[in-house]
Specification:
The chain has ten helices and seven strands. It is α+β, with helices and mostly antiparallel strands. Strands 2-4-5-7-6 form a five-stranded mixed beta sheet. A two-stranded antiparallel ribbon has the order 1-3. Helix 4 packs parallel to helix 9. The chain binds adenosine-5'-diphosphate. Adenosine-5'-diphosphate binds next to helix 7 and helix 9.
Length: 349
């Protein structure tokens, strides 16, 4: 039954009760027939006015309820656009306000869910592609070796070398994926220790010295003497620095220069790795920290990783409460900057 009908019936019942009482009063001879008729007429006029007033008063309430019901029907069909107008009495306006807040939150959650579903699908597709490509290559080379079609030693060694190269890439990819899933699942116990910055940087340079030399790159470092130690997990931060330096080497021109600087920013330490490479345009800068994002879209790379390096760096830095940013322009080299907490800041975190 509709709200209007409810109100109309309740009016009817109360008027009926009044008219019946008047009739009983007349029966009991308490009033004359004329007085009873007069009171009945007054009651009927009052009832008519009351019905009209009710109809006017409940109109905004009905409109408000109708708006809410239309909007919830649209939401049920997946349409979250448009706000419910706030009309009617204060309680209904508040209800419309709360409904709008709920609609906006639901809209946001559903968008986030759809986005994460899309990136999950992209992730699975990328993982499958990056696992399948080296595996297919290994398989074809092994088959060629098994079929004994290769007779000369040089080709034989070249095939073996390719198999070894692809196996290393595969194992690197699996290690990266394992590391990322551990970071995602909070499976790495965060146990930072005070550690000197210069040791971190020197160790990183030593581990990449072969690559640095083979490309004839110059290294400039600037590390003030009085920097306090950072409060970090050294192995993880070493990995971040290795990754940044490795990228800088990879994208630097032959005999270019790479600068590594460290500076104190209050209770944080900033480390920057600057190269003279091809640079990264603005649109790509937002995406390079995404998993599997590579600027070379072909994915048929002969060089470079799977696009997981910077994603791992970001997760490791987030674990430390730090940040990673890039400053770059097409053709103008890149500066990757990370911030790490000192022992003093870590005590606050
Ligand atoms: P990869 O393992 O492919 O290097 P990363 O996550 O380390 O993956 O980097 C993602 C992408 O960001 C790279 O494919 C590259 O296109 C770009 N990139 C990273 N570092 C640099 C750099 N120093 N100069 C230019 N481009 C870079």
């Amino acid at each position: 039954m509709r709200l209007r009908t409810y109100l109309f019936l309740s009016n009817l019942v109360s008027i009926g009760a009044i008219l019946l009482s008047l009739f009983l009063i007349y029966q009991g001879m308490l009033l004359t027939w004329f007085e009873v008729m007069l009171l009945m007429a007054v009651t009927c006029i009052a009832a008519l006015i009351s019905v009209i007033v009710h109809a006017i008063v409940i109109r905004p309430i009905v409109r408000s309820v109708r708006n809410l019901s239309d909007s919830s029907e649209k939401m049920a069909q997946g349409d979250f656009a448009g706000e419910v107008p706030q009309v009617g009495p204060a309680e209904f306006k508040q209800l419309a306000r709360q409904f709008n807040t709920m609609r906006a939150q639901l809209d946001h959650s559903i968008r986030t869910l759809r986005q994460s579903e899309a990136s999950r699908k992209e992730l699975v597709a990328n993982i499958s592609h990056d696992l399948r490509t080296p595996l297919a290559s290994i398989q074809s080379y092994v088959e060629a070796l098994q079929d004994r079609v290769i007779t000369d030693e040089e080709t034989f060694q070249r095939y073996l070398h390719t198999i070894q190269h692809e196996t290393t890439r595969l194992s690197q990819l699996i290690n990266d994926l394992f590391q990322l899933s551990r970071l995602d699942a909070d499976a790495i116990a965060f146990q930072p220790v005070p550690y000197p910055i210069d040791t971190l940087i020197v160790d990183t340079l030593q581990s990449q010295s072969f690559l640095l030399e083979s490309k004839g790159l110059n290294i400039l470092t600037s590390i003030p003497d009085n920097l306090p130690p950072v409060q970090v997990m050294p192995f993880e931060i070493q990995r971040v620095l290795n990754n940044l330096l490795h990228n800088a080497i990879q994208y630097s021109p032959e005999e270019g220069c790479i600068q590594i600087t460290a500076e104190s920013l209050g209770s944080w330490i900033a480390i920057a790795v600057r190269d003279e490479g091809e640079g990264i345009n603005l649109a790509e800068q937002e995406r390079i920290f995404d998993r599997f994002y590579r600027m070379d879209k072909s994915r048929n790379r002969r060089s470079g990783g799977a696009g997981l390096g910077l994603a791992i760096c970001k997760s490791i830095l987030e674990l430390h409460g730090g940040t990673i940013t890039v400053e770059s322009g097409k053709g103008g080299g890149s500066i990757f900057r990370i911030t790490l907490p000192t022992a003093q800041e870590a005590a606050v975190i």
